[in-house]
Amino acid sequence: MGNSKMDLIMHPIRMRIIQTLIAGKQMTTQQLTEMLSDVPQATMYRHLNKLREAKLIEVVEQNQIRGTVEKVYSLAKGGADSTPEDVTQAASEEHMQMFMKFTASLIADFGDYLQQPEYNLIQDGVSFRQTQFYLTDEEYVQMLQDIRAQMARYAGRVPGGGRRRRMMSTIIIPGRAENQQQKTGEDTNDDN
Predict the structure, then answer these.
(1) Closest to 70 (Cα-Cα) out of 22, 21, 33, 36
(2) Does this model's pTM top 0.70?
(3) DSSP state of 70
(4) What is the pLDDT of residue 187?
(5) Exposure of 58 by Cβ count < 10 A (0-12 exposed, 13-18 middle, 19+ buried)?
(6) How confident is the model at residue 83 (pLDDT cuts 50, 70, 90)?
(7) Rounded CA gap, 174 and 71, in Å?
(8) 19, 93, 146, 189: least CB-packed within 10 angstroms?
(9) Spacing of C-alpha 90 from chain mean position
(10) Distance CA 156, CA 153 (A)
């Protein structure tokens, strides 16, 4: 799985590049480096090349600037989406490995936040919680659409004017299918 689309996307820096390019944004390496100011330019180039080689991003424009060519990148169609093969053909161990990479990146981001000389969890809006929902498949799809619509309202804003980067990560884990009927008290026997 080392070369799968999901494995490429799950790298923390590449994930941030893709998130920055979501919603049809087109950006140069310089603009991406300004947006992700903690990523050195050489590292940015390396990860852009990996994403381009994997056809997750594409060069949509090239500008001649003082003897060099400046490339403008955009997310390729479906670039942020996992393929059905990545999702269905991966073994349990591979899914666990992807999940561990994702949670490790969350731990690293939170650790970086805590390394500041001063921070205020309440004022900064730090939050982590778990909420359970009992939903039909249709209700679940509607909830996701509602959440995505709200997030899209704010996703395109750029740094500056007092804005600081705030990351919202979602992890959705359904209960085990065989336990659901037991928990709701439903009888699976039709002999009643």
Answers:
(1) 33
(2) no
(3) E
(4) 46
(5) middle
(6) low
(7) 42
(8) 189
(9) 19
(10) 7
